[in-house]
Amino acid sequence: MKDALRRKAEEALGRGDYRALAALCLELLEATEWLEAWRKIDKLAQSSGEYVLAKFLASAYALADDGIYEALSPMTREFLARDVVVCLEKASQVLESQPFSQPL
User: Fold this and answer.
1) Which of 18, 25, 69, 93 has CA 20 to 30 A from 78's CA?
2) For residues 88 and 9, is the Cβ–Cβ distance under 8 A?
3) What residue ranges in 1-104 does DSSP mark as E strands?
């Protein structure tokens, strides 16, 4: 993961700001909204065979959605936040390994 994104993730975790952490998935995927992120992660999963990326993005989406977020306990939010960190790391690795000719 790029240093700037890693720093933002660490800062969000330090503040316990899981919504900001989830939004970093959008930033990494260069998506402006969640539907676009889902399309991009699906394409990335298909091209890389790393379908677990969809599971991790689901955790980010749950933390970004106000209704879902409010329904979750603090411990569940923290659990999902860990998946978001893995999503950022794994998606970043896969993106870096993709040929430049395959834009998301």
Assistant:
1) 93
2) yes
3) none
Which positions ≥6 away from 59 have C-beta within 8 Å? 22, 80, 81, 83, 84, 87
44-68 pLDDT tens trace: 999 999 999 999 999 999 999 999 9
Residue 76 and residue 83 in contact, taking contact as beta carbons nearer than 8 Å: no
| Beta strands in 38-78, from DSSP E residues, in sequence order | none
Record the tokens describing residue 99, joined without a space: 């040929």
DSSP-derived secondary structure letter, 49: S
Question: Which residue shows structure tokens 């399309």?
Answer: 39
pTM to 2 decimal places: 0.85
